[in-house]
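Figure 6 in text form: structure in, sequence out.
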């Protein structure tokens, strides 16, 4: 079991950042040969990203098994995210190309993503009796005290 931090904490990150939500949806479970390769591409991408911090990936959180799946990712910038997505030498590009060549027209599996550009200071977080998690794991945790005691204070209002 992960170590719990038994006090109120909040995340602190310098500058702008990106929250990227990505996932897939299996539409025909019995066609495992169609959706399994798509599902197995993500762990390879995450391994590559975690091994190369210069790519701008700050961290990610799988939300467990669901359909559709959801993976929350934090990126240093949209430029980092876009460069990784379009790099023909990355693990993402061939998986993306394979999806569009083999699967997208048939509908056995769907993919989705949402990108949110977060300006410095335009976020707030709170964690209590939690292991290191979320943006706190992708950046750093500080005590939620003083000006960080309330959501309004964490937002600098």
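Output sequence:
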């Amino acid at each position: 079991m992960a170590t719990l931090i038994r006090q109120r904490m909040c995340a602190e990150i310098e500058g702008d950042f990106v929250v990227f939500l990505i996932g897939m949806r299996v539409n025909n479970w019995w066609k495992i040969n169609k959706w399994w390769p798509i599902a197995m591409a993500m762990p390879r991408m995450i391994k590559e990203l975690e091994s190369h911090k210069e790519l701008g990936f700050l961290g990610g959180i799988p939300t467990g098994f669901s359909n559709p799946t959801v993976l929350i990712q934090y990126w240093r910038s949209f430029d980092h995210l876009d460069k990784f997505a379009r790099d023909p030498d990355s693990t993402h590009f061939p998986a993306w190309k394979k999806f569009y060549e083999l699967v997208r027209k048939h509908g056995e599996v769907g993919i989705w993503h949402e990108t949110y550009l977060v300006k410095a200071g335009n976020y707030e977080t709170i964690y209590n009796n939690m292991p290191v998690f979320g943006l706190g794991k992708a950046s750093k945790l500080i005590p939620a005290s003083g000006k960080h005691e309330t959501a309004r204070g964490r937002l600098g209002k």
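Caption detail: The radius of gyration is 18 Å.
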